[in-house]
Amino acid sequence: MSAHILKNYDSDLSALKDSVVQMGGSALDALEKSVAGLLEGNLDQCYDVIDDDEAIDTQEKRIDEQGMSILLRFNPVASDLRHVLSSINICRSLERIGDHAVTIAKRSRKILKAGAVNEVRLIDPLFREVQKIVSSALTVYSDVDEEAAMKVIQMDQKVDDLHKSLGKSLSAQIAGGAKETEPLLNIIFISRSLERIGDLAVNIAEDVVFISSAEDIRHT
Amino acid sequence: MNDSSSTLDSADAPEVASNEPIISIDNLSFSYDLGSTNTLRDISLEIPAGKVTAFIGPSGCGKSTLLRCLNRMNDLVDTAKVTGGSISILGQDINAPDVEAIELRKHVGMVFQKYNPFPKSIYENVAYGLRVQGIKNKSVLDQAVEESLQKSALWDEVKDRLDSSALGLSGGQQQRLCIARAIAVKPQIVLMDEPCSALDPIATARIEELIAELQEDFTIVIVTHNMQQATRVSNRTAFFYLGELIEYDDTSKIFGNPTRKQTEDYVSGRFG
Question: Quick check: ipTM above 0.85?
Fold first, then answer.
């Protein structure tokens, strides 16, 4: 794209994008730590995720300020306007991913404190898929790659399938009279959070499609 | 102008339904130097009735030249010449030999960048065009003056001093007076050439509100350098560059998701 007649405009847009990518890194890091804490039996990682959530919230506020400042000073139009609006939307999705990571960390803490159960291993395949979809969503935002964004949206089906399968399996164990039901319920809640994170990654990919083509594909 | 062949000189020009083109520009080329160089090249667009159409583009792109072609203001330039194509207004080729510019301008009024009231009273400024048309009946003039000042949102501010000099009004009021003067003769089309560029933000807002209200009765074509103003006041936008029409579409499309890269670069301030 050609350079803007106002140099600050390009640098501010670029800084906004950098901030969103950075926040995405923080949210992905929180997700990875929260599940790693559970799988590795490491309580410290769970506490880190809970403590670090405030930093993600602060990043969200900063991005809102940056976006508002660009809207106020430069009145962007066309793809620039879509870029600013979608970046603000995406930071909202990332903040919620951070919140889900905190939920996972708190549930993991409960499981670990009660004494780990073998079923936590069932989370791993779902976690790997969710990690992949979030990471891909951040890459397509950074590259503004519409084609890759559509692939991210398709990836969510596998996340949903794994979540359903895990829920069925653990529900059957509980219904079958498993002795320790609380850890199993916590794993189901963790699975639910991972599934929601997949949906948020889809939201990010949909925002990228909007930036690229001006087409709003949400709820279609 | 020949009464039997022209539609523009009849007292009651044909009504044009909203969304139907009231102005059709077909492959128009125009030169200021008798055809040595074309300032406008091969312009084709249709301007719908009852809408506001904005012409945008960098200085020298030809947008004001095209606007002035629409009421043949360029006739005042000796070496100006339409070198190709045509402009039809209300179905009439406005450059046809039997069409008089003065007759055309009864249907196509104009408001200029710098407000230019006559050094006369407020009343006489508005009544001027009607007097030129030969209307002398005081009650007809009174009614037309009041109606035009009402429509231009100036009546409440000046109704008690209609005999005062127009030059005593503020800049924004003078521009609204010029709009009242333009619409007093009931044209179908009002051309506006950067009508707010000499006004402060409050006066600009009044004019923009006025454009929205006038849209109910008139087709408006506005040239503006203010992108935000184009997005606020117009339904359709045409982007010109170096004498050519680059893109013409709904304003929301031009400023939201233009088709041509040149348009996107210009509206987003990336014109190198």
Answer: no
